[in-house]
Amino acid sequence: MWLYILQGIGYGFAAAAQPGPLQTYIISQAITKGWKKSLPAAFAPLVSDGPIITLCLLVLRQLPDAFQKVLYIAGGAFVLYLAYGAYRSWQTFDTNLFIPESGAGQSVLKAALVNLLAPGAYIFWSLVTGPILIAGWHETLVFGISFLLGFYITFVLCLMLIIFVFGTMQTLGQKVRRMLVGMSAAALFCFGLYQLWLGIFK
Could you give the residue ranges of the DSSP H alpha helices within the chain? Predict the structure, then answer.
């Protein structure tokens, strides 16, 4: 069980730290509206990811079990690609970057819509976290739930941290953001190698 919890925590942290539409949106909200009003947006993945996970798992369940090794290898390669992208973002990170103010009237539902329409979540749950969730589910329901809890508790808490930091001090926020991107690159690299190991040797 602890292996699934740790994987959930690792991928939850990496998902929150990766640059993307959802992160850009919540940072913009934190800068323009302050952290208190922006904090509910951190819960957007809990609203949007249900349909995404359901769709991805329905597709994955139609595939033969032998294809799981192919998914692990493809997922491992994709995670290493994300790790390289995160490393490049860390190298070229501009701590003076200012994200422009967005329009008014935006809420957690709009943040959820941003996440729902972005392709990254579908790719992530199809190639990376989906196979892990199914593997845990096949062993026991507790393992699958443990992975989901580890993932979403970490994901939401990290998004809340990003909102708080950017909402209180912009310059410090960018420095912390760069540190999180660097840490996510290292985490993604390790998990990518682990996924490749599962696909090749398991």
Answer: 2-17, 21-33, 35-38, 44-61, 67-91, 108-117, 119-123, 129-139, 141-168, 170-201
